[in-house]
Write a structure and sequence with these properties.
The complex is a heterodimer of chains A (201) and B (201). Chain A contains eight helices and two strands, in the order H-H-H-H-E-E-H-H-H-H. With 201 residues, chain A is an all-alpha fold. A two-stranded antiparallel ribbon of chain A has the order 1-2. In chain A, helix 6 packs across helix 8. Chain A is globular, with a radius of gyration of 20 Å. Chain B has two domains: 48 residues, no CATH class; 116 residues. The complex binds zinc ion (ZN). Zinc ion binds next to helix 3 of chain B.
Chain lengths: 201, 201
């Protein structure tokens, strides 16, 4: 029988630091997936996920065991992702701004090496059209979708994590799916080989 | 059954298990009768599985070790670390204020009625301070761990101290017993209050 999240937290807070590994083990897949789908770059997502687990460790005594550990952990992951995306966008803006030099203004030649997810596809990583379609979704649709499919959260948990009414969460997830469905059907038609059980509409 | 376009959102919600029991029942009835929707549901399930697969990212094999390596550089959580000092301080101050008002009133009355003739002003102040400390300690004792137990000891010492001071001041046993009962009952009331507050949070 494995310990509950709350039991592990209690043990870690009582001084058994090594037991925190159980929580990392338990949620690494969901956190990395979530952050990856928010950021768009695997290495960055792994780095940021490590930060998330580290932040969660240092703030562990502020966790209230009455609430689900996942909701608390995802709030940290979410804030970290939002901060990082905001930082990148600021970096992009400031890198694009002309630099005043002695010989007048010149454009910086440093390309924005830390783009947001929309631009990540240009990096040349092998990425399917549907994957890119996920990144192309506006944040407000992408995030609940990612929480549902990457983090495997329930609608209730998503509603709590995003502080949105349940109805809004459902609507956004359905709209996101609708947008992707068309994309997936098109990519399925284009792919080689027979489409399994071609759906008649 | 008339021909119709399947309601994708309903099918999506059904496949996701977020329809109300009533809606599930009528959906299942309909699925038996309607081939179009039954096929659309199969396609919806495949689509959702595809989204799960797409969204999920596998963390690198050394992820847990990397996190734990960084966690190890942070201090181990200790039971005493978790005390919400600020909240505890507020309780302590509130407790001391209430006692000061009650004791102040009581002492003024006793001085007026001549009961405390023999007591020196210094002794009366000592009683007030040590009792306030005792009550504040009572508030602390409701916080888990050994640090709060240290406060219990402190409280006991404080109680002893003020009773001895009173004795030296020549106050009669009636005053001692009255003040003691007052402190104990206030202490109890505050402990209950704090416990209730903690349970609700
Ligand atoms: Zn139908």
């Amino acid at each position: 029988m494995s310990a509950t999240d709350q039991e592990i937290v209690e043990a870690v807070l009582a001084g058994e630091q090594h037991r925190y590994a159980e929580l990392v083990e338990r949620y690494r897949g969901k956190i990395v997936s979530y952050v990856m789908r928010m950021m768009g770059n695997y290495d960055d997502a792994v780095d940021l996920s490590q930060e998330v687990f580290l932040k969660a460790y240092t703030a562990l005594d502020s966790y209230r065991p009455q609430y689900p550990f996942t909701a608390w952990l995802f709030r940290i992951a979410r804030n970290a992702s939002i901060d990082e995306l905001r930082r990148r966008r600021l970096t992009m803006v400031s890198l694009d701004a002309p630099v005043a030099t002695g010989e007048g203004e010149m454009q910086r030649d440093v390309a924005a090496d830390t783009p947001g997810p929309e631009a990540m596809f240009l990096e040349g990583e092998a990425r399917s059209e549907i994957e890119q379609a996920i990144y192309d979704l506006p944040d407000k649709y992408r995030e609940p979708l990612v929480l549902r499919h990457a983090a495997e959260m329930s609608y209730d948990e998503i509603s709590e994590a995003l502080e949105l009414p349940l109805g809004t969460v459902k609507t956004r997830i359905f709209r996101a799916r609708e947008a992707l469905r068309g994309n997936l059907e098109r990519s399925a038609e284009g792919s080689a080989g027979p489409t399994p059980g071609a759906e008649g509409r | 059954m008339n021909r119709h376009e399947p309601n994708r959102d309903m099918l999506s919600a059904y496949a996701d298990g977020v329809l109300s029991p009533d809606a599930v029942r009528s959906m299942e009835q309909h699925l038996v009768e309607c081939d179009t929707c039954a096929r659309a549901l199969e396609s919806e399930k495949r689509f959702l599985t595809r989204l799960d697969t797409l969204a999920h990212v596998v963390p690198p094999a050394d992820f847990v070790n990397a996190v734990m390596g960084r966690v190890a550089q942070h201090p181990v959580h200790r039971p005493g670390n978790a005390i919400p000092w600020r909240a505890a301080m507020r309780y302590g101050v509130a407790a001391a204020l209430v006692l000061a008002v009650i004791l102040g009133g009581g002492v003024t009355w006793m001085l007026g009625s001549g009961t405390l003739q023999n007591a020196q002003p210094g002794a009366v102040v000592a009683v007030g301070i040590s009792s306030a400390a005792g009550l504040a300690a009572g508030a602390f004792t409701t916080l888990r761990d050994f640090v709060s137990q240290g406060f219990v000891v402190l409280e006991a010492v404080a109680q002893l101290l003020w009773r001895v001071t009173l004795l030296a001041a020549g106050a009669g046993w009636m005053i001692q017993v009255t003040l003691l009962l007052l402190t104990v009952s206030l202490n109890y009331a505050f402990t209950r209050l704090v416990l209730n507050y903690q349970r609700r949070n």
